[in-house]
Amino acid sequence: MAQQEELFRKIISHSKEYGFVFPSSEIYDGLGAVYDYGQNGAELKNNIKRYWWDSMTLLNENVAGIDSAIFMHPTVWKASGHVDAFNDPLIDNKDSKKRYRADVLIEEHLAKYDSKTEKEIEKAAKRFGDSFDEQKFCETNPRVIENQAKRQALHTRFAKALNGNDLEELRQIIIDEEIVCPVSGTRNWTEVRQFNLMFSTEIGSTSDGAMKIYLRPETAQGIFVNFLNVQKSGRMKIPFGIAQTGKAFRNEIVARQFIFRMREFEQMEMQFFVRPGEELKWFEHWKQTRMRWHKALGLGDKKYRFHDHDKLAHYANAATDIEFEMPFGFKEIEGIHSRTDFDLSSHEKYSGKKIQYFDPEQNQSYTPYVIETSIGLDRMFLSILAGSYTEETLEGGDVRTVLKIPPALAPVKIAILPLVKKDGLPEKAREIMDRLKFNCHCQYDEKDSIGKRYRRQDAIGTPYCITIDHDTLTDSAVTIRFRDTMSQERVTVSALEEIIADKLSMKNLLKQIKNQ
Ligand code: GAP
After folding, report:
1. End-to-end Cα separation, the chain, in angstroms
2. Which of 361, 436, 474, 478 lies deepest, with the highest CB count within 10 Å?
3. One domain for residues 60 and 201
């Protein structure tokens, strides 16, 4: 556990040191749960976005991409249910004046019961050595039994309060379990109340003409309200999908774990419109397709798993998360939801406009059902950083830190390195750079020893380093060094483009999604 926390700390500081992620407005001490992407982060983010966008719009003839506005008519959020139900239960400690999510305080308390049991198991495992039978120990040890029973009772009570939206009971649980404020250490709590997560602002210049609007908390609604526009202008036939990427905003109360939970983040969402009755078939289709998209990156199949929802939103008839093994455990990076006809029907009701599809094959009109795939770009970014961050001890004891980012997504694809800063090598290197820069992002570096330059490129995940030496001037060959194996090969300049193009191409990733 401590090792994983240490790894996470290292990833965060590496991100900053190498220009991936910076705290927002850092010179003013930052802004909670808001981050900026640096020169390498922006490249990586754009590459992930391109991989997602191409997988949706190139591989599926029936998926069209749009880019809708962040500001939307406020009734959109009434129709979607966000004005009334996009809430977190909040509680304040009167002594520290700190605010918490009541459900998170209780979840953290539940986790304490788990770690108590784990400690008992660890102690016993040490005592009994090879003969230790964990299952038998948990079934017979009185302390473990008592602890587990208390945990179970608390969990049942908590789930009932949460599902029943019983705020008084949530507070009572906090009191009964003697949960203290981590800052003041006291149990001096306020009532629990609901807090809406949407940010609001005003549109219009005069106070009487101004209208309260929201920053969108999801991009999906921009797709629903454009359903008819895209269907008609694109002559789309069901089944078809609409995809978009863009910023979303949520006033998260418990914002932590770096870019995992942010107040301003980016989503990549696709709504797939189908005939009523066919939604579960398409749900399964997208579930499998999206998992293949993740696994094609080669970070390790075991790092992903599905987590089907036990409790479904009232409008959904199936839902699953794709989780990735972060340094802080398996966590949701993408949701796949079967949303029935809830959104389109609701917009039809609130707007008074008919939002239906005439199906020529069935000779009837209906409100399509929807399968949604919704992935957070920032969480995807974090999964790639966490999955690719590696420390390797080299012969001689040096440690190299390398980001084994899938080559097609790497911020810099090729580093061009003249061995020395003289003898015409920089000029030759520039000549090669001028040739390759039309294919992909190249970086020229002539400062420091070649070893130091390799380490710098390893740290930002550059898959190929090309070294230009004195022989290059006569034999037109260069040394190509491969990031993951550190092996080197001598190749002619003319062969370079071909060798590299294939390995760096997004095409190979996309083909894997189709072929798996
Ligand atoms: N339209 C459906 C929707 O928005 P969601 O589960 O609330 O569903 C979808 O969000 C994805 O957006 C999540 O799986 C996650 O990757 C990302 N996401 C949600 N809240 C986030 C936050 N505060 N910070 C970063 N990413 C977030």
Report:
1. 34
2. 478
3. yes
Could you tell me if 446 and 421 are in contact, meaning their C-beta atoms sit under 8 angstroms apart? Answer: yes
State whether 116 and 73 are in the same domain: no
In a domain, 289, yes or no: yes
**Count of residues for the chain?**
516
CA of 249 to the centre of ligand 1 (A): 10
Nearest-CA residue for atom 20 of ligand 1:
261
Q: Which residues pair with 266 in a beta bridge?
A: 247
The residue out of 337, 366, 386 marking a domain boundary is 386
Q: Are 509 and 465 in contact (CB under 8 A)?
A: no
- Distance, CA 267 to ligand 1 centroid (Å)? 7
- CATH number, domain containing residue 399: 3.40.50.800
Residue 28 sits in the same domain as residue 75: yes
382 and 400 share one domain? no
Task: Tell me whether residue 191 is in a domain.
Answer: no
- Residue 303 inside a domain? The answer is yes
**Is the Cβ–Cβ distance between 443 and 464 less than 8 Å?**
no
> What distance in angstroms lies between residue 57's CA and the mean position of ligand 1's atoms?
21
Residues with CB under 6 A from ligand 1: 218, 220, 250, 252, 261-262, 265, 267, 269, 332-335, 372, 374-376, 378-379
Å from CA of 389 to ligand 1 middle: 24
In a shared domain, residues 80 and 223: yes
Kindly report the backbone phi and psi dihedral angles of residue 217, in degrees, each rounded to the nearest multiple of 5, phi listed first. Answer: -90, -10
Q: Which residue's C-alpha comes closest to atom 16 of ligand 1?
A: 376
Query: Ligand 1 centre from 132 Cα, in Å?
Result: 42
Instruction: Tell me how far apart the alpha carbons of residues 47 and 52 are, in angstroms, rounded to a whole number.
Output: 9
Number of domains composing the chain:
3
Domain extent, residue 256, equals: 2-86+197-386
Closest residue by CA, ligand 1 atom 19: 376
Q: What is the DSSP letter of 368?
A: P
The residue whose CA is least distant from atom 2 of ligand 1 is: 374
Asked if 137 and 58 sit in the same domain, the reply is no
CA angle 414, 420, 423 (to 5 degrees): 115
pLDDT in tens, the chain (516 residues): 678 899 999 999 999 999 999 999 999 999 999 999 999 999 999 999 999 999 999 999 999 999 999 999 999 999 999 999 899 899 999 999 999 999 989 988 998 998 899 999 999 999 999 899 999 999 999 999 999 999 999 999 998 998 888 999 999 999 999 999 999 999 999 999 999 999 999 998 766 678 999 999 999 999 999 999 999 999 999 999 999 999 999 999 877 789 999 999 999 999 999 999 999 999 999 999 999 999 999 999 999 999 987 667 778 899 999 999 999 999 999 999 999 999 999 999 999 999 999 999 999 999 999 999 999 999 999 999 999 999 999 988 999 999 999 999 999 999 999 999 999 999 999 999 999 999 899 999 999 999 999 999 999 999 999 999 999 999 999 999 999 999 999 999 988 888 888 889 899 899 988 755
If asked whether residues 250 and 367 sit together in one domain, one would say yes
Task: Give the span between the Cα atoms of 121 and 147, in whole angstroms.
Answer: 12
417 assigned to some structural domain: yes
Q: Are residues 15 and 150 in the same domain?
A: no
Distance 279 CA to ligand 1 centre (A): 22
